[in-house]
Amino acid sequence: MLRSWSLNLTITSTSGVAVYLQIAQQIIDEIQRGRLAPSTAMPGTRDLSKKLKVNRKTVVLAYDELIAQGWLTTQTRRGTFVSADLPNFTNLEGTHQIRAQTTAGIESTTDSPISYQLPSANTIEFNDGIPDTRLIPCDTLSRAFRHTLLGSQKATKLGYGDPRGAIELRHAIATMLNMERGLNVDENKICITRGSQMGIFLAARVLTKHDDYVVVEDLSYPPAREAFRSCGARILTVGHDKHGIDVLGLEKLCKQYPIKAIYVTPHHQFPTTVIMTAERRLKLLMLAKQYDFTIVEDDYDHEFHFSHRPVFPLASTNHGDKVVYVGSLSKVLAPGLRVGYLVASKAFIDRCAHEVMLIDRQGNSITELAVAELMVSGEIKRHIRRTFKIYNDRRNALMHLVSTHLNDFVSFDEPSGGLAFWLRLNQGLNINALEKSALSKHVRILPGTLFSATAEVTHAIRLGFGSLEIDELTVGINKLQDAFREII
Q1: Looking at residues 15-26, what average pLDDT do you find?
Q2: Confidence of residue 466 (pLDDT cuts 50, 70, 90)
Q3: What class is the 138-377 domain?
Q4: What is the dihedral angle through the alpha carbons of 241, 320, 207, 130, rounded to the nearest 10 degrees?
């Protein structure tokens, strides 16, 4: 039986993260280190709350979070235990260190698929990392819409409203960002958009004019590049590696050109899934201040980070005035709901509101109010807990499948988060031939060339797993193995 004194947790009141989340994440860290083995008894909530000097309800919330995610289980009259179904992380340490080349990358951004092709019957679609719409809590969602429609009818909220979006949703998002992502914003610094792509476009409209220089990474999200290009920007590219963006290369560009903005996805870089290191984050922020450019930070799937606590956004730092933050609820709920948001200074948001008036007048107030109700009631958080475990299971299953069936053809780095893998083809394998062979076997993949700003042939694949169940992943990888064998 684990004694409460042996579970050494540290609570930081100034961290900006809710206390129960700090407790939950540190317990996860202890499990993954192998210090808390499967079936280990946890201290009681009363004992742990006394030790940490917090309210018992806070510890109960932390345990509930961990139980919902599958890390802990409860046994009647016995207590709470580390789940027996978890692997022994001490024994597994190092077993997933798949061969990796030094050209690691970053992960998909925004809430829309890259392929722009409609799914075909009987075809396994490895998209860019969209969520599984089959997991949507339709009953809960329909109740929220019903409440909103009835309430809005009485409150006359079906007419024109604020182009920045419903204040209820802006307030709910501000609370979430402040409590869970370390930002310090209010509803006046938020503009609701129809997905993160609209947020990127609005940022491009406000930031850039004809012939301004904008930097993107060599491999990045194509619609983001095109959003800036459509506003007349000149696109410059910079490299990246397993630590994130090449800040030395960026500094050279800054000395050559008057950079106006840079678009990045530091949490899960698109398309390679690399997390930008703390050192490079700080250097990027310093360059933004030194050379007076704006960082457009796309944090498209912050919620799905599996290896450790999600890293705080660049926008949470005291350099936040140099960051425009783009987020989305589409990965959490469904792409079809089209709910994203943009966070910046009040003056910047007011300019975004002016652009909204020109193209859309306002968003969908009914959807915004319904989503706000789901956030305030805690339904979205509960949905995230449920889907988090499902997506983590799928991630682990895909990692095993790729390691078992594709090990002779590809290498990859285990992604810490997001809903996709970045597979690098071994030397001598042709990505174009593989794409054709896979399609002939009813498997659609996204070749790395799609994400290249220079259209350079990139011998890699972005393999989304979020929308596929484990049996579908199994079929897809088996067929992909056959496709590899065919092109050797």
Answers
A1: 78
A2: very high
A3: alpha beta
A4: 50
At a CB cut-off of 8 Å and minimum separation 6, what does 156 contact?
A: none
Give the Cα separation of 421 and 266 in Å (integer): 16
Sheet strand arrangement including 340-343:
190-193, 340-343, 323-328, 294-299, 259-264, 213-217, 234-238
Token pair of 434 as six digits: 């593989």
Length of the chain: 488
Taking the C-alpha atoms of residue 426 and residue 204, their distance in angstroms, rounded to an integer, is: 37
* pLDDT digit string, tens, across residues 175-218: 999 988 888 899 999 999 998 999 999 999 999 999 999 999 99
Q: For 266-303, how does the pLDDT look when each residue is reduced to its tens digit (9 = 90+)?
A: 999 999 999 999 889 989 999 999 999 999 999 988 88
Which of 3.40.50.300, 3.20.20.150, 1.10.10.10, 1.10.150.170 would CATH assign to domain 4-89? 1.10.10.10
Q: If pLDDT is split at 50, 70 and 90, which confidence band does 112 have?
A: very low
Strand residue runs (E) in 95-239: 124-125, 190-193, 213-217, 234-238
Is the domain defined by 91-136+381-487 classed in CATH 3.30.1830.10?
A: no
CA atoms within 13 A on the CB side of 31: 25
Sorted by sequence, the CB contacts under 8 Å of residue 183 that are 6+ apart come out as 16, 177, 313, 315, 316, 320, 325, 343
Q: State the residue for tokens 């174009």.
A: 432
Helix (H) or strand (E) segment spanning residue 86: none
In this prediction, residue 157 carries a pLDDT of 65
